[in-house]
Specification:
5-stranded antiparallel beta sheet; 35% helix; 470 residues; alpha/beta; 18 strands; 11-stranded mixed beta sheet; single chain; 23% strand; 14 helices; Isopropylmalate Dehydrogenase; Thiol Ester Dehydrase, Chain A; Rossmann fold
Length: 470
Amino acid sequence: MEKMLENKTFDEIQIGDSASVTRALRLDDVDTWAAVTGNVNLTFLRKTEEMSGTIEEAGASGMWGAALISTLIGTQLPGLGSITKSVQIDFRHKLAVGTKVTATVKVTDKFPRSGIVKLDCLCADSLGRELLVAAAEILAPKQKIRQPITDLPKVQLRRGDRLHSLVEKCESLDALKTAVVHPCEEEALIGAIEAAERNLITPILVGPENKIRLTADAAGVDISPFRLVSTEHSHHSAELAVDLVRNGEAENLMKGSLHTDELLHAVLRREAGLRTERRLSHCFCLAVSTYERPIILTDAAINIVPDLIAKRDICQNAIELAHALGYVEPKVALLAAVEVVNPTMPATLDAAALCKMADRGQIKGGLLDGPLAFDNAIDEEAAKTKGIVSPVAGRADILVVPDLEAGNMLAKQLTFMADAEAAGLLLGTRVPIVLTSRADSARTRLASCALSVLMADAQRRGGAMIMPAE
């Protein structure tokens, strides 16, 4: 049955009438209030007091209590059509985050000539302590209004730096000597400098010296502390950067403002010494604002139409990245359009074969299942609705797409339509390679550097099983 809202007109209201509502103040409420009002002081106070669970000034969270009073007036007493004429508020105690607050309004007087009713208002905690006391004068509605409750829009907070935990994981690790390849655009150079400032990398800037210095001047960054290896052009930058890794002068590579094909051409030269027995693949680490945890998506950048053996390597590369991030046995969902094997859909056959390859030890360290459609790979309710019984379905840590087109579209949909933050890494080579888009922000490059540091540390500790190519 449809829920209805019904007001009380001035004539219906009696002295002594009351209404109440109970809510708990959450951290998200404080942040939402700050976002709506533009009052950054609220988040500052929250951060300084979140360990003790209180907001420093009563008025900061007290206004949330006042908003509950306003809600009662506008929806219950008098309800729809009410107009607030005046309110006097006395904030008496701090309102702790997590506290259940009961807001109450009570009619104390009526003025027939003006149509105003006087309300005593109170917000109290579960112990009865008065947090807020107010007196309000409300112009009550004259006409009866009864209408269905309108569904309010859902509010989703979008916080920056959702991949910040990657940077935090690197705090105890040494900075990687990183050859930054052709950083001749501002975002590419700033990303490397910020990573250096966070002690993630020690950059070696490889590119045309004049271009790099002009870029640094335009970006307002100081590159004097860093080694600069001058080159003639982008191809030359890629070749010299790879040589630095082969000679042990650099521990990994970071793509700057050159095309991916140029960098890969230098990396894949057999004489470069960076190739391994594995197929190269790319992993996105995606943090979506509406999803509870980061997720790895592969391969959306390198392998266009991978065959079964390439997909095996794609899975293994992603599993080892997940290990580097702290997953003990990452759950790998092999995506297709459906969750059943269909001979007319090659992706479903590959998924089934990969699961059996994992059973036989050809893919190690992860728990694989597929084929799985995207919805039942990430959502437990969707998996239950389809009757899928699986430790992976609905709880996937890694999403393996059937081909590059599907992966690229999925990654871009999540970043541009779901506000996902993405970090990218190229795996399957002797060292991890920070491989980002030329359009990526400096923050994305910073998170990608953190991924690289964690992966390199795992390789040093023997956590990755990549073997050099013979």
